[in-house]
Amino acid sequence: MPPIFSGHPTMLEENDWRNAAHSTGTSIMAAEFAGGVIIGADSRTTTGAYIANRVSDKLTRITDHIYCCRSGSAADTQAIADIVSYHLNFHGMELGEEPLVEVGAAIFRELCYNYRDSLMAGILVAGWDKKKGGQIYSVPIGGMCVRQPVSIGGSGSSYVYGYVDANFKPNMSKDECIQFVTNTLALAMSRDGSSGGVIRLGIITEKGVERRVILGDQLPKFYED
Amino acid sequence: MSTERYSFSLTTFSPSGKLVQIEYALAAVAAGAPSVGIKASNGVVIATENKHKSILYDEHSVHKVEMITNHIGMIYSGMGPDYRLLVKQARKMAQQYYLVYHEPIPTVQLVQRVAAVMQEYTQSGGVRPFGVSLLICGWDSDRPYLFQCDPSGAYFAWKATAMGKNYINGKTFLEKRYSEDLELDDAVHTAILTLKESFEGQMTADNIEVGICDASGFRRLEPSHVKDYLANIP
Question: How far is Cα B96 from Cα A82, in angstroms, rounded to an integer?
């Protein structure tokens, strides 16, 4: 829609950061370990080149044992997460027990696939249930759904596929896995301009979720000349 | 073949100004299994008889005491199938509220919404009123709530009440036994005693259901827990 006042586009420039959509150009990941899953994300939300929030929380609670990592449009992923919460809470209430991670992922997929033309959302669904233990389901843009023992997403993920392939091992201990996730995200954040800030972690096991933050000065350092 | 609804309501006024269908619905409720609710100083208890007509019934598979949200529970007297529908709708409404307001639905809000549904069925084409009265208990804003919803859509806030068979005797019993500083434990005890007044036969942990709601939320009591309470009853 063109500006209402005269043809001088000084105030309503369309491609300006002031009017750009909030995106979570991001680095997110999830990895299975012995006893559960660990999810991690950076904390940068951008509108164009402006960092709108440098401490955002991209790890969103769906239930006590199911979380999602959000990448893509911040608005789209927040709205989807809220709707999935609605459906999963209702489902859990009818079942009388904790809903399964697979079910949560299926609901995410239903929304992301059926509204694929209107959404820009890449989501990692991760959690723990008593049927299959720790699980990760990747629901990228387009709305497919696939279970993976380790999964990365967001704009920063492109830079760390090699590192993940070389360093992931199944059945790591909790601390090994924390180090692996931290290193991966730190590498992605240092190469991707749309990722940065702090590393937020979530450790999901039978007992629930433990949240951690790794602040800027504590990030692992790699080769820098 | 889709159901072709009547456009006119089946619930119509009698010359004396009564809605006879609602009166009949209330009669269905009064003929139903007894249920009881008591508000204590630190929580609410709801309880109902859940007798099976034959030993072949699989006990504990289907429940009368139902959770609507973490902090709200419900029971009924009257027609089971009608109740199930309202439970489902109440659960949906609670989730819809959370989606919009990001706040667990206050008990009063849920009661108003459920009651609005029940009223709809007294003023819509081709449907009959619900043959249930509901007892809805909840905890929010640091205090307990107990409400009754009638087939007419009317709702009442109670300190203690009884519904279903013998409800008049039940209420009289409660009037004598109720006090403002009742604790939840004592309230459960009193609720079970009230049910006993109209109980035919031996009361066991398998033929009654009890739910409690306090600051830590709503839960249905396990049969083993109910047994402990029954042990203290003469």
Answer: 10
Contact A93 B69 (CB under 8 A): yes
Closest CA in chain B for residue A92: B69
Sign of torsion over alpha carbons A31, A37, A38, A43? positive
Residues of A known to be catalytic? 26
The alpha carbon torsion through A110, B84, B208, B75 (nearest 10 deg) reads 100
Whether the predicted interface score ipTM is above 0.90: no
User: What distance separates the 2 farthest-apart alpha carbons in chain B?
Assistant: 58
Of A139, A101, A105, the closest CA to residue A120 belongs to A139
Q: If interface means Cβ-Cβ distance under 8 Å, which residues of chain B face chain A?
A: 67-69, 88, 91-92, 95-96, 98-99, 102
Say which residue the tokens 């827990």 belong to. B225
Torsion angle defined by CA atoms of residues B49, B54, B55 and B57, in that order, rounded to the nearest 10 degrees: -80
Contact A85 B99 (CB under 8 A): yes
Distance from CA of A95 to the nearest CA of B (A): 11
A161 and A148 Cβ atoms separated by less than 8 Å: no
Q: Which residue has the tokens 């007297």?
A: B77
CB pairs under 8 A between A and B: 22
Which of B71, B95, B209, B222 has the highest number of chain A CBs within 10 A, making it the mutation to test binding with A? B95
Say if the Cβ atoms of A94 and B68 lie within 8 Å. no
| Alpha-carbon separation of residue B132 from B50, B80, B128, B200, B208 (angstroms) | 15, 8, 12, 22, 18
- pLDDT in tens for each of the 225 residues of chain A? 544 555 555 555 556 666 666 665 899 999 999 999 999 999 999 988 899 999 999 999 999 999 999 999 999 999 999 999 999 999 999 999 999 999 999 999 999 999 999 999 999 999 999 999 999 999 999 999 999 999 999 999 999 999 999 999 999 999 999 999 999 999 999 999 999 999 999 999 999 999 999 999 999 999 986
State how far residue B99 is from chain A, nearest Cα, in angstroms.
6
